[in-house]
Amino acid sequence: MRKLIAFLQQDISVFGRQKQKKLPFDRQRKVIELFNNLFASGFHLGEIVDFLKRSQLLADPYTQVLSDGLLAGKPFSSLLSDLRFSDAVVTQVALAEVHGNTSLSLSHIQSYLENVSKVRKKLIEVATYPIILLGFLLLIMLGLKNYLLPQLEEGNAATVLINHLPTIFLSLCGLSLVAVLAGLVWFRKTNKIKVFSCLAALPFFGKLIQTYLTAYYAREWGSLIGQGLDLPQIVGLMQEQQSQLFQEIGQDLEQSLSNGQSFHEHIKTYVFFKRELSLIVEYGQVKSKLGSELTVYAAECWEDFFSRVNRAMQLIQPLVFLFVALMVVLIYAAMLLPIYQNMEL
């Protein structure tokens, strides 16, 4: 009852300000690019926000969020969090504020967002035409089911399949939606180390997830180690970040290090990292070049990740076209087989 009374006593004008509308992905990429270029030109954070406000390169509600954050004394990473950037981007910037190489981190983030933007555009290009074809095909099958098939005196396997195919297709879409929603609920409520361990075991997507996480963590660890931070400091920093997976790995590593287990041995237990990562860490610690070696290895992993994604994009269209071709063959079979049977009689 007290909570209800306190809720009713709140100023209703606050609700409009509580949830800042998320910055669109393309605008996020543009904002990171602007910050990167302006930082490189010698601007400090206050001057950048003032420039964005005066130039109208960013809408007023977003520049107001940045201005309010600056007045509150928030760091750059918190400002991006207020603009609802992803946890991955916010964490990278927060770590850059520690190791001091913000410009390099922004360049990495800009490159990552540009690659993701290309993948998104490619996915839209690849998927749009097949989805339109599937829509037309579904309408054709509904028409056959309601008008043509009832007029055929004799049926066959193709007519039976076409008769039930629209129902099967819509049922599969409904089940897929339920499965996705259930997966999202499970993802939010489950320990993230467990979640990504399960996802890494998937037949196709597992390799993508493994490569992405290896590239991401290798680059961040490499940057921190390269700036002279030791493992206990890095593990402590990980637990302070916004990313839940980052926090859980930090807590797990802290416990393992306190139990006397080495860093590379414990990394080997994470199935969502590539096995080569633990070898790189072990070799780098021996040669005292761990930071630079992790950075080079991360660059290779990022290249491998986007190469895998692009190859996967190229498989979507042929698979959908193959499905459409099979449906067209079924339609012809449903229409022509009864005619041939009547001709033989």
TrEMBL record:
Annotated Pfam families: T2SSF (PF00482)
Does Lipid metabolism appear among the keywords?
Answer: no
Its localization reads: Cell membrane
Origin: domain of life: Bacteria
Q: Where does this chain mainly localize? A: membrane
Please give the start and end residues of each transmembrane region: 126-148, 168-187, 319-340
> What name goes with this protein?
Competence type IV pilus assembly protein ComGB
Give the way it sits in the membrane: Multi-pass membrane protein
Query: Can you give the residue ranges of the Type II secretion system protein GspF domain?
Result: 33-150, 218-338
The similarity comment for this entry is:
Belongs to the GSP F family.
Q: Which UniProt keywords apply?
A: Cell membrane, Membrane, Transmembrane, Transmembrane helix
Question: Cell membrane among the record's keywords?
Answer: yes
Would you tell me the Gene Ontology cellular component terms?
Answer: plasma membrane
